[in-house]
Design a protein that fits this description.
seven-stranded mixed beta sheet, about 250 residues, binds zinc ion, Metallo-beta-lactamase, Chain A
Amino acid sequence: MTVTYVAHSGFLVEWDGFYSLFDWWKGELPPLDPDKPLLVFASHSHEDHFDPKIFTLSARYPKTRFILSHDIRLATRRWEKLGMNAELFRRVTSIRVDSVLAAEAGGTPLTIRTIQSTDAGVAFLLSAEGKLVYHAGDLNWWHWEEEGSLYCANMEMNYRRAIDKLAAAVRDEAADAGCEPVIDAAMAPMDPRLEDAFDLGVAHLLRRVGVKRLFPMHMWEKYDWIDRYCAAHPADAERIVRIRRDGERFEI
Ligand SMILES: [Zn+2]
């Protein structure tokens, strides 16, 4: 499996039988094999996660389909603005929070689970080819001190609950697929704007859920904060991928 960090929270994951592209709005995509199915995911409607330019991919890659969080509105009155048309619309699956979707990509069976984000939209857990891949979207422990103690207490509760749901989804999926209950590649926010709380989300995720490789994201290009995380959490360091630049590829 190859994971390409595109930019910000955008990742391309190449499986044996298909590609999955998450939250692409910025950065260059590597050239793709047009014969391989491409599943394009968008976790929520915010502009640093969803850009209607994703719909242009199907012209270059005829086997493209879109799995979009339900908060991304595709009403016909918006079609012109989005570059949408009836043919493209048939390629879209709109998915709600806390759902399970049994799909397939070029004959490869695939399960897509969503977990409600603490921000907007969903996080995705994909299961295929005996592997599990997680993309958090903006599901994170957003400890914004300035929002006050009630906000922060609610945030903590909601984040812990979401990660408990993820842990249960990983166990269920692994039991169904007959694989280890461990996420092979997890992509999760490590946002420097949270200052001293930048590590809460990833640290809690790694304590609660088995993860082989953790790709930090939503970093606003401040990749040195990955080193800061590893210094503060040496037990996690081996599993944290040291991203340094847009377009970097990792074989896992
Ligand atoms: Zn965001």
